[in-house]
């Protein structure tokens, strides 16, 4: 099949299938993707594909540089250049330039990878004491310009905007988010996962995400981490990189070709600081867990899906699906069995080391999802689940190991995935002895909503006295984990519960403030209101 495809492509090239660009004497060899049936819109003879509902890939050639995304850590700049697909007769070389006393100076060249159409610039000994303009160039006219910000070490308050779950049920632009975030001007932006919901067409969807949000990270550092939908799965229990063969992947592992998975992670995470331990997991899939020190705040970036055990065949199945438990009479201890993994030994070792370093910094953990079962109803009001094994409330032993180390670091936790915004004080052995956790709302929450809705419709012990929300206080989740619910946003709330988080770290007062903003609120207006229950300020001394 692949030999036939190669022959067809060669014939197409000879016939001059590219009408967009003038052909040089020598063409760039066409890279044939090592996978089939995924990323079809952007691989091989991509220009022969019909128009698609995600994004126009056949852009003018002076627009082929879609965006750049970067971080600076330990005086090392890492910047990923994302391009639209290129024709065979176009250069694969991309340039990074910086402005120096009013003149543009080329500092690095890199080759674009035809699988995913990205390239990574890495510049050591970066000057973090001043703002520096950059631009990414391809050919004579295509470019993307932005600003590498200086480290905000002199600021008393460092802020981060946090978002997740960019549903493809709404393919419009994200003007409200861009306006609000740029007005609030955070020092860092965090996308916790599911930037793409198009599963088998990541490149097109990632380009669409960039078109929607690039004005938020053009001029500030950004952290992006992929979640299950980004790599083409409804749920992900990565189980150290193994191959998943069961529908829905509850057996654990990755469903699609490793080159596709690595492409997704390359496009979304190559610009992050170097991983703590770069050793790949099974089948050569890489890792990216690491930390980023910015302005006196130390962010640990976790991969809470990659090492997690899949439930199928390992625990007693409690219903028609191996990952859903509907029976409130089941024994939670029966599914917390020896050998089950959440973060895995490698990430636990990383967290142990991270907790013992940079102790003067405010510590923050960033991950894909929360470490408890923070929702009762999934998808629609008729679908009440007692426990969801896709949440990081399970396995309980792994959850408690992770929370113990997060608490040792005196860190707060920020995550996405659940669509349901919550602020929870985690409990490990007792209520309230674990870290604070803020799960931010979905960017678009019109598709798969979740509800916090105790079946008895009663507040727990020690309810939050500072809110009119009816169901706050101490609860056991479906795994018997101790949680103290402080605030939640059910989808009947403004913007159907869609929105984003803004978190402020006051280094002088040693406090963290969680803000939660509805999607359609204009924060530039004096009467702009957050969701009921927010803001919440907690101490981290």
TrEMBL record:
Gene3D superfamilies attached to this UniProt entry: PhoD-like phosphatase
Q: One Pfam family name from the record?
A: PhoD
> Which SUPFAM superfamilies does the record cross-reference, listed alphabetically?
Metallo-dependent phosphatases
Q: Record the organism.
A: Maribacter algarum
What name does the UniProt record give this protein? PhoD-like phosphatase metallophosphatase domain-containing protein
Q: The organism sits in which domain of life?
A: Bacteria
Q: Which PANTHER family match?
A: ALKALINE PHOSPHATASE FAMILY PROTEIN (AFU_ORTHOLOGUE AFUA_5G03860), PHOSPHATASE, PUTATIVE (AFU_ORTHOLOGUE AFUA_6G08710)-RELATED
Domain PhoD-like phosphatase metallophosphatase: residue ranges: 212-426
């Amino acid at each position: 099949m692949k030999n036939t495809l190669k022959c067809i492509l060669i014939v197409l090239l000879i016939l001059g299938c590219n009408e967009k660009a003038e052909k040089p004497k020598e063409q760039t060899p066409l890279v044939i993707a090592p996978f089939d049936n995924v990323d079809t819109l952007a691989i091989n003879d991509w220009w022969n594909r019909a128009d698609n509902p995600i994004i126009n890939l056949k852009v003018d050639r002076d627009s082929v540089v879609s965006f750049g995304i970067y971080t600076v850590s330990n005086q090392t700049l890492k910047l990923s250049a994302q391009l639209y697909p290129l024709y065979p007769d176009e250069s694969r070389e991309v340039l990074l330039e910086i402005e120096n006393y009013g003149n543009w100076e080329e500092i690095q060249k890199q080759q674009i990878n035809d699988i995913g159409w990205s390239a990574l610039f890495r510049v050591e000994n970066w000057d973090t004491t001043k703002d520096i303009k950059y631009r990414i160039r391809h050919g004579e006219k295509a470019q993307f310009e932005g600003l590498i910000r200086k480290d905000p070490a002199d600021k008393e308050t460092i802020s981060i905007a946090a978002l997740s779950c960019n549903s493809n049920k709404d393919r419009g632009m994200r003007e409200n988010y861009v306006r609000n975030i740029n007005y609030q001007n955070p020092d860092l932006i965090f996308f916790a996962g599911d930037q793409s919901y198009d599963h088998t067409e990541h490149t097109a969807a990632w380009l669409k995400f960039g078109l929607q949000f690039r004005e938020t990270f053009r001029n500030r550092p950004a952290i992006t981490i992929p979640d299950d939908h980004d790599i083409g799965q409804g749920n992900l229990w990565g189980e150290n990189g193994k191959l998943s063969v069961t529908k829905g992947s509850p057996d654990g592992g990755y469903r699609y070709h490793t080159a596709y998975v690595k492409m997704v992670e390359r496009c979304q995470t190559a610009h992050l600081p170097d991983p703590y331990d770069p050793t790949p997991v099974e089948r050569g899939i890489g890792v990216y867990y690491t930390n980023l020190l910015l302005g006196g705040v130390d962010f640990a970036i976790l991969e809470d899906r990659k090492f997690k055990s899949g439930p199928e065949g390992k625990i007693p199945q409690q219903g028609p699906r191996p990952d859903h438990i509907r029976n409130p009479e089941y024994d939670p201890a029966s599914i917390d069995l020896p050998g089950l993994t959440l973060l895995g030994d490698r990430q636990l070792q990383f967290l142990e080391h991270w907790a013992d370093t940079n102790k003067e910094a405010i510590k923050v953990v960033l991950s894909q999802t929360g470490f408890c079962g923070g929702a009762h109803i999934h998808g629609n009001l008729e679908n009440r689940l007692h426990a969801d094994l896709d949440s990081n409330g399970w396995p309980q032993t792994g959850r408690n190991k992770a929370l113990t180390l997060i608490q040792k670091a005196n860190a707060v936790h920020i995550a996405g995935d659940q669509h349901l915004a919550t602020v929870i004080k985690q409990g490990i052995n007792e209520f309230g002895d674990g870290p604070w956790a803020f799960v931010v709302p979905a960017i678009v929450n019109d598709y798969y909503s979740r509800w916090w809705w105790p079946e008895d419709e009663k507040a727990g012990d020690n309810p939050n006295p500072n809110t009119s929300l009816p169901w706050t206080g101490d609860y056991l989740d479906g795994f018997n984990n101790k949680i103290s619910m402080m605030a939640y946003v059910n989808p009947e709330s403004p913007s159907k519960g869609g929105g984003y988080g803004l978190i402020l770290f006051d280094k002088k007062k040693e406090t963290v403030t969680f803000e939660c903003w509805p999607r359609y609120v204009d924060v530039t207006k004096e009467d702009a209101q957050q969701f009921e229950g927010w803001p919440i300020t907690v101490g981290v001394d």
